[in-house]
Write a structure and sequence with these properties.
- Belongs to the IL-17 family.
- This is Interleukin-17B.
- It holds the Pfam family IL17.
- Residues 1-17 form the signal peptide.
- By secondary structure, this protein is of the alpha+beta class.
- The protein has a domain at 52-148 and 164-180: Cystine-knot cytokines (Cystine Knot Cytokines, subunit B), CATH 2.10.90.
- It has helices at 2-28, 39-46, 52-68, 86-89; strands at residues 94-100, 104-105, 108-114, 119-120, 127-128, 132-148, 163-180.
- A hairpin with a 6-residue loop joins β4 and β5.
- It is elongated and about 60 Å long.
Length: 181
């Protein structure tokens, strides 16, 4: 019976371990088997920020916080280690301004603006212009107001009135700054 157990173990469990080991080696080389399930999709369905309304509400909250703070007027090229916000602790500090566009939803989006031409030297805490602060961009989904004039693209020509329609587009916004040589 003991021999039968060892034989079963060797035939069933050892090849499975070899397959897992091969999969791990393949991932290290950049090769991976396609997943059998889609865990990202399952996660996204439980995510509270998947709806556009929640996303737009979070941006409105950021804009409201920015307007209520004194940060909009502070444009000094300096690091403040007492603040917890990363934009003021960075060696390439940035401030936020409000990017306003009435033809987009959300109309107001916080946008980063680099405060230094150079970068803060961590040893002297002074600006060093041998390096440069540059913005980091990200593409954000927004709804843009498009105006379709009747008579164009199959519409009946019943006048020059514009039919307002929003379309989802990706917009490039500066979200922070970083240092480069």
């Amino acid at each position: 019976q003991l021999l039968l157990c060892i034989f079963t173990f060797a035939m069933v469990l050892v090849p499975e371990a070899k397959d897992q080991s091969k999969a791990a080696k393949g991932r290290r080389r950049g090769l991976a088997r396609p997943p059998t399930a889609t865990p990202a999709l399952a996660w996204a369905l439980d995510d509270p920020y998947t709806s556009m309304a929640d996303y737009e509400r979070s941006i409105q909250d950021m804009v409201r916080q920015l307007r209520n703070s004194s940060e909009l007027g502070d444009t000094k090229c300096q690091v403040n280690l007492r603040l917890w916000r990363s934009n003021r602790r960075s060696l390439s500090p940035w401030a936020y301004s409000i990017n306003h566009d009435a033809t987009r939803i959300p109309a107001d989006i916080p946008e980063a603006q680099c405060l230094c031409t150079g970068c803060i030297n961590p040893f002297t805490m002074q600006e060093d212009r041998t390096m440069a602060s540059i913005p980091i961009y990200s593409r954000l989904p927004v709804r843009r107001l498009l105006c379709q004039v009747p008579g164009e693209l199959g519409h009946k020509s019943s006048g020059k009135k514009c039919h307002k329609k929003y379309q989802m587009v990706m917009e490039t916004i500066a979200v922070g700054c970083t240092c480069i040589f």
